[in-house]
UniProtKB/TrEMBL annotation:
Region (Disordered): 1-57
UniProt biased composition (Basic and acidic residues): 1-16
Phylogenetic classification of the source organism: Archaea, Methanobacteriati, Methanobacteriota, Stenosarchaea group, Halobacteria
Protein name: Small CPxCG-related zinc finger protein
Length: 57
């Protein structure tokens, strides 16, 4: 095995872990900004995470 074989099998550099938040790394949505109980999968007008049950005022 030569250096070119090893180099070819390396994974691409996709960024440092510090670039992503812990919720992005774990795949968990941040809590809802209004109720704080459900995962905030939608966003309100300000771009804050809200759950589908909370009104989007």
């Amino acid at each position: 095995m030569t250096f070119s074989h090893i180099h070819r099998e390396e994974a691409r550099h996709v960024g440092d872990p510090d670039d992503a938040s812990i919720s992005e790394l774990t795949g968990v949505a941040p809590p809802c900004k209004q109720c704080g109980e459900e995962p905030g999968t939608d966003t309100d007008r300000n771009g804050d995470p809200i759950c589908p049950d909370c009104p989007n005022d």
